[in-house]
User: Fold this.
Amino acid sequence: MKIMKKSLCLAMALIIFTAIFPQYTANQVSAEEYVIKGKFLLAMTPPPGDSIPVSNRAQLEAIANNLSGKYHLTADIDLSGGVWTPIGTPYNNNRFAGIFDGQGHVIRNLTVTGNRSYAGLFGEATSDAVIKNVGLENTSIDVSLNSDYNDLNVGGIIGYGGRISNCYNTGSIFAATTAYRSPINAGGISGRNSSINSCYNTGTVSVTASGGYYNPHAGGISGTNEAGFSIENCYNNGIVSANTSSSSSYSNPRAGGISGNNEAGFSIENCYNTGAVSAKGGRDPRVGGIAGFLSASSVPRNTYWNIDSKQTVNDKELSRDEKKGLGQGEGQATALTTEQMKSQSSFSGWDFTNVWTFQSGINSGYPILVPMLKPVPNLDTASDWAREQINEAYMLGLVPSALQNNYRRNITRAEFAALAVKLYETVIGVEITGRSNFNDTNDVNAQKAAAIGVMSPQNRELGLFAPDTVLTREDSAGTLVRLARLINRSLPSGTANFSDNSRIASWAIEYVGQVQAARIMSAGSGNNFNPKHSLTREECIAAMLRLYNR
Assistant:
């Protein structure tokens, strides 16, 4: 009977899995496609042929139905609107044991709350599970544990385990426990026992224990680690704190810029921290620019911390002489001033060709990881007024590669369709699968834009899209309003108020009023809208950015 029930459960899981991934095929994807779609500078290695594409929340959640599978993101995903259930648990052998490749995409607005023993995008994974190439932005994890004799492990990427590489977190992580004999470990990337390479955190990490007996551990990258695990080529800029209300000798907070607590056989190499660290309560609270506690046999190598950043113990800010790289432990963690941390010569033993680099205007001048570096667009052909907006749109992934030049050129209908499709798929997080066919073009963006009703044929009777025809300003107003409705961007109603209102087509007058009221499009000289005039690429990129930011 038990075997039959188990078989039925497996069958149901397979049915659900197939329904959620209806278009899954085992076709290899070209490297070129992923270089274009990815958000990381380094070319993404295409996923294996049996990797399952994931482009939305439902498909991401469905990974829990097959924890040993291979998965890759094909789009950014927005998880706003609901609490996330971490993938993989420590119970009943339900740890994630597969491969998750973000392909340089970003997961935004991950929220985890409630009473839990693990939290993150993933809950718990086996030691050989792989999670790579994904960024977490605007993360909000705020969890607690109130059951005795349990662990609380919390991280942005994962609570416990796994091999993590090329990942980052920019959100906040708060973990608390009132339970007795319940260790609490939190890190910006991992809570406990992960091997981590080429990752960074800029979010706040804070743990609080009021149940007593076990030490609370917090680290910018990882909370606590044991033998066989390592952190390499990582950095933290976020604030880290560990606190307890207990006075027990067994409840001593450990806070480190990279890792809170590290046992024998663990290694930290080629890492730096600029974030403030603090610890409060217990008998012996410890803070360190790199680690709160480091076992004697776990010696850090080539690690650096900012001596100008705050270190606080029991609400007392430490003096320059009192600050430490290691709150407790042997080995060397080199202190550098803010100015020194912005110079390559300060980081002895580091690879500034393949791993680390500096880029003006990024990360406050501190070193950044090459795999995480988004290239800066060539803006030589852009007008002065447009450069900042083009750069922002580019960093958000809103500018198709074909439009990353000749910014002052008049935009065509096909090119505007490419911008509209890019904005839609970026915001919604799902590729447009519908297509409307035309007799004069096979342009996929024209087909997609028409399929979702954003753009219409120029000649419906003949089935002509007119891809190379220059777009007019009143045409673009209509497209922007329709696109706003599809991506849930509310535009105010308004009456067009231009000197040349009489020249605006009757069908377009309402659209023009809306984009004017929303400040997405504005008047030219003499308060003229110039409805029949063309627009340039840079004008359209700027308009799309304004719509995205509403």
